[in-house]
Specification:
By secondary structure, the protein is α/β, with parallel strands linked by helices. The protein is built from 16 helices and 13 strands.
Length: about 425
């Protein structure tokens, strides 16, 4: 099947062709015709399967067929997403695919000056990509009108709930017209997601192109057992001895990401850290350097597990295993994308054996253990509990991740308006995940 058979406009087909795509992915084949027919859709697919184009292309077509003439533009499509990086990525896709259509779009998120965003909104946009917190900031200042939204897209819904955005989502839904088309996309479908869908969607069509919490077939997975104090040494050895050119490394905390990047630099390996406490300009620069090959290693917290779209990324390393097993799937989904192969390695110390068992239970497979010669774990070292500060789940820059250094909610709101770590509204109080 080609994109031509999906009923897309010539302008969209031209943009898709220039992007280098000729055949739609399974999620695109199923979602695009349904969205064009006006159905509400609940779509699930493992990361890297083309989900963004699956909703962006039909959204652009629907809006272009309902052009309003030369009058004032207003927001007719709203795309909500949990992180700045993912918002920027979706905004870029909207521009790329819509380059030959007379539609205006913009992206708004926290961590940057709000005034340019206000100016853009006042000029009028058809499509708005936003993180929840910054969108509510604009709504509170009456710089955005959501009363005429025709299409709502909730992307990475599971991550939204994990990060504590459910209350913000409910506030936003109250600002929208009742009659609209709703599209909910999620890499995983938890019971909480299904309850949200029941409240938000109207007779939705459910599409899942892979089983829940599955990992791409193109990703090779391996566990390297190692003592906790030798992880950095082993990572440097693997990068240098195997001449890895581009490596995405995940740590549990922001402080850990900073420390590891500094240690790798001392080892002669170019590295940068990206997490919620970094300024937006620093995050953008680090990601840009990593994509163009200037930086060899990008050390990230789970804020980067969604929204990082790096073509043919060869290596992902779990320096620390995540506390939440679903995050393992999202992390390693940064490699093996769009049919390419990739390698996911996990450096596991004695403290993390339970986390490893939880991951293996989730993905329904036992991961191969390969001891690297010279880095054999010391059997006399006893497991230590992972400290509560290291277990703190923070939403996009909300928590410091260090015991005794937690910011007050007021100060946190001032520092990162889109990071609203709140209790989940289904009666399951949570702190938000470390970013």
């Amino acid at each position: 099947m080609s994109f031509d058979s999906l009923g897309l406009l010539a302008e969209l087909l031209r943009a898709v062709s220039e992007k280098g795509y000729s055949e739609p992915t399974p999620i695109q084949r199923q979602t695009i015709p349904l969205i064009l027919k006006g159905h509400d859709v609940m779509g699930g697919a493992q990361t890297g399967t083309g989900k963004t184009a699956g909703f962006t292309l039909p959204l652009l077509q629907l809006l272009s067929k309902q052009m309003l003439g030369e009058g004032h533009r207003y927001v007719r499509a709203l795309i909500l997403t949990p992180t700045r990086e993912l918002a920027a990525q979706i905004g870029e896709s909207v521009e790329i695919y819509g380059k030959y259509l007379p539609l205006e779009s913009t992206v708004i998120f926290g961590g940057v000056n709000i005034k340019p965003q206000i100016s853009k909104l006042r000029r009028g946009v058809d499509i708005l990509v936003a993180t929840p917190g910054r969108l509510l900031d604009h709504a509170g200042q009456k710089t955005v009108d959501l009363s005429k939204v025709d299409i709502l897209v909730l992307d990475e819904a599971d991550r939204m709930l994990d990060m504590g955005f459910i209350h913000d989502i409910r506030k936003i839904l109250a600002l929208l017209p009742n009659k609209r088309q709703n599209l909910l996309f999620s890499a995983t479908f938890s019971n909480d997601i299904k309850r949200l869908a029941d409240k938000m969607l109207n007779s939705p069509v459910l599409i899942e192109v892979a089983r829940r919490n599955s990992v791409s077939e193109g990703v090779g997975q391996v566990v390297h057992p190692v003592d906790r104090e030798r992880k950095r040494e082993l990572l440097s050895h693997l990068i240098s001895s195997q001449n890895w050119g581009q490596v995405l490394v995940f740590t549990r905390t922001k402080h850990g990401a900073n420390r590891l990047a500094q240690q790798l630099e001392k080892d002669g390996i170019s590295a940068a850290a990206i997490h919620g406490n970094k300024s937006q300009s620093a995050r953008t620069r680090a990601l840009s350097d990593f994509k163009d090959g200037t930086g060899r290693v990008l050390v990230a917290t789970d804020i980067a597990a969604r929204g990082l779209d790096i073509e043919q990324l060869p290596h992902v390393v779990n320096f620390d295993l995540p506390n939440v097993p679903e995050d393992y799937v999202h992390r390693i989904g940064r490699t093996g994308r769009a049919g390419h192969e990739g390698e996911a390695l996990s450096l596991v110390c004695v403290d993390e054996h339970k986390l490893l068992r939880d991951i293996e239970y989730l993905i329904k497979r036992e991961l191969p253990n390969v001891v690297v010669p010279g880095y054999e774990p010391d059997p006399l070292i006893k497991a230590e509990p992972i400290l509560q500060g290291r277990n703190t789940r923070s939403g996009n820059g909300r928590s410091s991740g260090n015991v005794g250094n937690r910011r007050s909610p007021v100060r946190a709101r001032q520092q990162s308006s889109e990071s609203r770590g709140k209790a989940n509204s289904f009666g399951n109080p949570r702190t938000s995940r470390s970013a």
